[in-house]
Structures are given as C-alpha cells and as structure tokens.
Amino acid sequence: MTAATSDRPRWDDHDDLPLAPLAGDAEAEVCVVGLGGTGLACITEALALGARSVIGIDAVGVAAGAAGRNGGLLLSGTSDFHHDAVRILGRERAVEITRRTMAEIDRMIAEVPQAVRVTGSLRIAATDEERADCEAQRAQMVADGFAAERYEGPEGVGILIPSDAAFQPMRRCRTLAARALARGARLHGATAHSLEPGLVRTDRGSIRARHVIVCVDGRLERLVPELASGVRTARLQMLATAPAPEVTFTRPVSTRYGWDYWQQLPDGSVLLGGGRDAGGDAEWTTETTTSSAVQDYLTSTLRLRLGVHADVTHRWAAVVAYTETGLPVFRSLGDGVCVMGAYSGTGNVVGALLGRGAAQLALTGRRDLLSPFLD
Asked: Secondary structure of 33-47 in the HEC alphabet?
C-alpha cells in the first residue's frame, strides 16, 4: 500500500457544512435520524409536504458515512441484477422496482444537476460465465421494456445500461442539507442512543416528535437491535488516484458480478472500489479503517486490470448493512417510529426513494413509493 495517502474520500473536495450541536431537549413534528442521502431525501420531502417543523441529527456530519464515501454510482434496481430480481421476487415486483428506481435517477438529476453526470453504466464480464449472465440480464431487461445494450469496447465485453449515471455524492448531500436549512429545518450533531414512541434520546439531550424516521445504513443493527437477526454490517473500501491521462473511462464500470467498480472523473482521476471478497470474513465489521488485504487487491487491480499508473492519493472505507434477501429494510416499529436502511451496498437510488416514501407515509399516509419494497 502507498503510505502517503489521505483517508478522506475523494469526494470531500469542497467546504463542509458544519452542524450545530443539539443543546438540551427539542421538539418537532418530524425527527430524522441520519443525514446521509436517505435522511436528506426524507427531510426534503417532509418540507415539501408542509411539515410544520423538522429536525435532523447525525452522529458525525452530513454525508459522513457511506452516503459520502461510496463509489458515486446511480444504478437502477436493488443489489440483485434485474434478471435475478425477476427470479427471486417475481416479474411484476422486480419490474416495478426497476421502473421506480429509474424514475428516481431522473428525479435526482433534476434535483441537483450540478452533482450528476448522465453517462450510462457498463457491466463488464470477467469470465465466460459472467458474460452469459450479462446477456441474461440484458435479455430480461429488454423483454421488460428497459434499455440495455450489448457492449464491446476497451473495458471488455458486457452490457451498457444507458439510464444509469455517475454523481458526486457528497456534493448532492451538502446541497440538500443547505437547502433544508434555508427552508427552516434544524440540523444538528447528535448521536441517537435509543428510540421510543415519540422520543429520540441522544448524547446531547432528547427530541420529542410525532414522527421519528430512522435513516441509517451501516451499524443499523446496533441502533435498532430488533433488526439484528436479519441485518449485518460490512466494510466497503475504495481508492482514488491523481489524474491518469493514460486511460479513458467514459462511463462507470462494474465487473465480477459487482464485486469491483470504478469510474474516471472529469479531471482524469480514477476511483476504484470493491474487492471485499479479498478480505474474507474480516470485512464483516463496523470498523471504518482500511485493511491491507483489500487495499493491496485494489492496488493490483488498478495497475494490472485498469492499466492506471498515476499515484494513489486517497484510500478510504465506509460501512454499510446487508440483508439476506438483498432488499432494503423498511419497518414500522409502531407509534410513529419507522426504520429504513441495509441497502446491501446499493443505497444511492433506493435510499433516496425510500426516504421520500417514508416522509409521504408519515405525513399523508401514501404508500405508493414504498409498496414494491414492502412484504
């Protein structure tokens, strides 16, 4: 591993949005726990629906967790490829999830266009078996009315999904947070210790709220022990380089069934993530420090597979939660408390969708955004 690198994510390239500490007790109509992409989408929707008062809290800061430390991909569907989702969930439900997530990508582009690049995405096969699986995915998507094209290019052979995009996740979150503050939301630094009907207890006081909406991914099972039997936290790792003129990647790429993924930013720098399988069971952890096993794998992949010679400038990690089904958690704990998260590594789009759906359910009773994800 290169020693002289930053452990900050490559996305942290502009001023932070500091949160005032929560001082004592507070009250609001809506309290959102977690100020990542899901929580900020929830707050934005709650304000749009006319919530009288909204408080959002986060233990570290805006997009300080996986929301600001991920691969920067906006992909439709869930953690399962579309043809697998059809087999597991049934065609009607899988199609509806893909349709809604594609629409959510379009909405996110319109919401913060300065943070998004409309690129499409590539899934590239690493083996003959994966090549056949790419074709199965493409055929199912086309049969269900979605755009997917066979692809062969310098990255390899696979499929192109033109509706996907790349984005700057931290810029999106900080933009939404600044807008929420301007509209009267109160955003604070505080760690939620326990949840009760109408009450969030934190390390800095308590918040009474008619609606408590928990939008947490990594370590979700710690905050909500009721979920521990079906949710497990894992560490995801990435690196970034200085500008690399020796390569050109015009679209984000995933390969090895999604285990590895990368993209090249407009300035030429390359961001590469994945390799969790190289770390084995040690990557089932709540620790956010990088590990040599995964970082060495990423460095080798960067040099040998991608052909990038530029210096590595950043190495970082984040924790996310996984479920056995691959579907995210959305659960009511009763009496105005609901919880969502555990996106199995693909929360950028689904998380935003569920965050908005949670606000709609709380304030209007509408369930249409949530319905494909509810058992």
From this structure: ECCCHHHHHHHHHHH
